Q: What sequence folds into this?
């Protein structure tokens, strides 16, 4: 079926689904494939469950007019998303970076939605499937779409940019994330900068942190840029007042008190503020948008439990985010401080070195108790407590009484350190 014909069907049935467990009446099911599944085998079930059509790429599963055969389902999904994007009048803001993408995206959406009809990437569905699904969720009345882009190797952001064709872009930072796939820090900078490359090549608009030397140097001669800074008078001034524990910000004559912990979240807020400023959102609404945002999903959450004040930041971790989380925690005022750190994944040959550096940093901060969990951390040369597997940590906590403390919990998603909450 030609793309134009498929798009006509999409306009009649504008809900896309890729999971038969989430089929809604009159959606279009795209039979994607993975390492351990073949969506074609679920096409019949999808239609039985209410899907209007199923898009397949294996002829043997074409049972009736409701099953539409294409050469490649994933490629068709991506092309349909790009076509829909081109038909829409919505402005597209894309963002990527090593740390803080999802929180920044949520803050931007919270600010802009006070004054515009917006849609944004759901959760962290930010890959070659998630980006098309976000674009296909754009409605007729959508004015701004905020599209998060994730990547773990070079050329991925370039590919996603060609699908989304953003009008605006923002890179949160360049950090030590996915070092294995990118081939080191320089590879990370090159890979994430593919968003800049697309925007500059198409003379589009870039928002950026003018206090980030890498970003400033890369955009030095580019005209279509809008920056924020605490010190550089050439750019929009935003001041960090405090972060003990919650980030408080000064913008012009307005003070904003967030529900976010960590100085690193100051920069995430700045991105939302500069975009609000650009899109003529009043400062009152910028304040409303940021102050109403409450972190969730194990991202910089503050939890009070059994006399402990817990910073739960266990959604993800890499050396860069781990370092700033520790530095922020060290600066917080508390009589007792306990740190739980879990292994950082996707570091490749750098894993041993990076885990040792974080272990040394945590040890130098002399917290009351530092506990390291995982194979990599347990292999470090450290005087701190280490547990190779979570079950051993669990046994320790069940038999240990912790005094009322400020607690930081930080680790990669695969470590699932939020389980610690049930043991406190």
A:
């Amino acid at each position: 079926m030609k793309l134009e014909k498929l798009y006509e069907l999409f306009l009649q049935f504008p809900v896309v689904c890729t999971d038969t467990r989430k089929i809604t009446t009159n959606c279009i099911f795209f039979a994607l494939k993975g390492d351990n599944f073949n969506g074609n085998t679920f096409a019949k079930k999808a239609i039985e469950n209410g899907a209007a059509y199923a898009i397949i790429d294996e002829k043997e599963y074409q049972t009736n007019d409701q099953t539409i055969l294409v050469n490649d389902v994933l490629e068709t999904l991506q092309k349909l998303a790009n076509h829909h994007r081109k038909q829409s009048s919505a402005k597209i803001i894309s963002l990527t970076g090593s740390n803080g993408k999802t929180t920044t995206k949520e803050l931007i959406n919270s600010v802009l939605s006070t004054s515009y009809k917006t849609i944004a990437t759901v959760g962290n569905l930010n890959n070659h499937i998630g980006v098309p699904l976000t674009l296909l969720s754009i409605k007729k009345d959508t004015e701004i779409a905020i599209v998060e882009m994730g990547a773990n190797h070079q050329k991925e952001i370039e590919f996603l940019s060609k699908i989304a064709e953003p009008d605006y872009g923002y890179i949160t930072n360049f950090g030590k994330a996915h070092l294995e796939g990118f081939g080191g820090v320089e590879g990370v900078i090159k890979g994430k900068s593919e968003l800049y490359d697309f925007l500059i090549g198409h003379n589009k608009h870039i928002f950026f942190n003018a206090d980030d030397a890498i970003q400033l140097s890369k955009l030095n001669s580019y005209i279509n840029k809008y920056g924020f800074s605490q010190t550089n008078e050439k750019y929009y001034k935003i001041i960090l007042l405090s972060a003990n524990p919650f980030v408080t910000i000064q913008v012009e004559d307005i003070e904003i008190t967030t529900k976010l912990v960590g100085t690193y979240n100051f920069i995430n807020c700045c991105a939302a503020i500069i975009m609000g400023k650009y899109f003529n959102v009043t400062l009152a609404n910028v304040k409303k948008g940021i102050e109403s945002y409450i972190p969730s999903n194990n991202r910089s959450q503050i939890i009070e439990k059994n006399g402990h004040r817990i910073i739960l930041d266990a959604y993800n971790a890499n050396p860069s985010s781990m370092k700033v989380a520790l530095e922020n925690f060290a600066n917080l005022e508390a009589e007792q401080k306990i740190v739980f750190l879990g292994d950082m994944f996707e570091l490749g040959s750098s894993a041993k070195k990076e885990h040792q550096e974080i272990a040394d940093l945590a040890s130098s901060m002399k917290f009351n108790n530092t506990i390291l969990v995982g194979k990599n951390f347990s292999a470090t040369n450290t005087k701190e407590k280490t547990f190779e597997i979570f079950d051993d940590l669990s046994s320790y906590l069940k038999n240990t009484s912790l005094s009322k403390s400020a607690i930081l919990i930080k680790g990669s998603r695969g470590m699932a350190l939020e389980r610690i909450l049930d043991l406190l």
About this structure: The first strand starts at residue 16 and ends at 17. The domain at 88-291 is CATH 3.40.1190.10 (UDP-N-acetylmuramoyl-L-alanine:D-glutamate ligase). The mean pLDDT is 92. The longest helix spans residues 73-87.
